[in-house]
Design goal:
By secondary structure, the chain is mainly beta. The chain has one domain: Metal Binding Protein, Guanine Nucleotide Exchange Factor, Chain A (Beta Complex). It has 1 helix and 11 strands; from the N terminus they run βββαββββββββ. It has a 7-stranded mixed beta sheet. β8 and β9 form a beta hairpin. It is globular. The relative contact order is 0.21.
Length: 159
């Protein structure tokens, strides 16, 4: 990614970067790649995720920033810091496409929380195992009960 985003991301010219998975926004103006599997995956039931996604929960996969590179549409990225209610890239923040407004990720200081539904798994009939959620977080704020065998935490994972 361009230097304006800092050194924590992979560069578009990084010869050691081999894309493993690719994702894009709804209109395909913004595209990115990751060179590793997610560190973790979770389903969040917090009120913020419910409001932002217009859904009872949000599914996210977590990557290290150095495993992510934007390959197209950097100029279309829109940032929003929900704590400060500012449309600025103040970390942590929400990242969306400025054209179609699709949410792309949550950007943390060191991590990139991606939404698996944006990934193209290249004809795979199912989501790769590494993208499957390992737990529910903020389950105490749930709108609907989920009957699965995953751990359900009232707050963050392991708390």
């Amino acid at each position: 990614m361009n230097n304006e985003f800092g050194e924590k991301y992979a560069s578009i010219t990084d010869a050691d970067f081999t894309a493993k998975h690719r994702a894009s926004c709804y209109c395909n103006a913004v595209e990115y790649e990751v060179c590793a599997d997610p560190v973790d995956a979770k389903i969040c039931h917090c009120l913020g995720c419910q409001k932002l996604h217009g859904a009872p929960m949000q599914w996210a996969t977590i990557f290290h920033k150095h495993d992510v590179r934007i390959t197209r549409g950097i100029e279309h990225l829109h940032f929003y810091n929900s704590e400060l209610h500012k449309h600025e890239r103040v970390l942590p923040c929400k990242v969306s496409c400025g054209l179609c407004r699709a949410l792309i990720a949550d950007e943390g200081r060191n991590m990139w929380l991606a939404f698996p539904s944006l990934f193209d798994f290249e004809g795979a009939s199912k989501v790769p195992d590494k993208f499957k959620p390992t737990c529910h977080i903020f389950y105490s704020a749930r709108i609907i009960d989920i009957n699965d065998d995953l751990p359900k935490w009232p707050g963050h994972k392991n708390r």
